[in-house]
User: Fold this.
Amino acid sequence: MWTLTPWVGGLWVAPDARRRGVASALVAYAAEKAREQRFRAVHALTAEAEVVFRRLGWEWIACRLIEVQDYRVLRMAL
Assistant:
């Protein structure tokens, strides 16, 4: 599972900037950079933003319990 690459990580949108397309723009930029490097998919690990990623076309591929937090692993084909 952890050999999947590349990963989108560290994305966070301030509460007062949400629902303005910021997350969409950040994810689109990361996907474009992955495409430029000829990757066929990009992955993300999230505990709280699964709905955001799925709305942007990502698919759920796994769950992982890390310490006491349940995370979702998502994938977007490029």
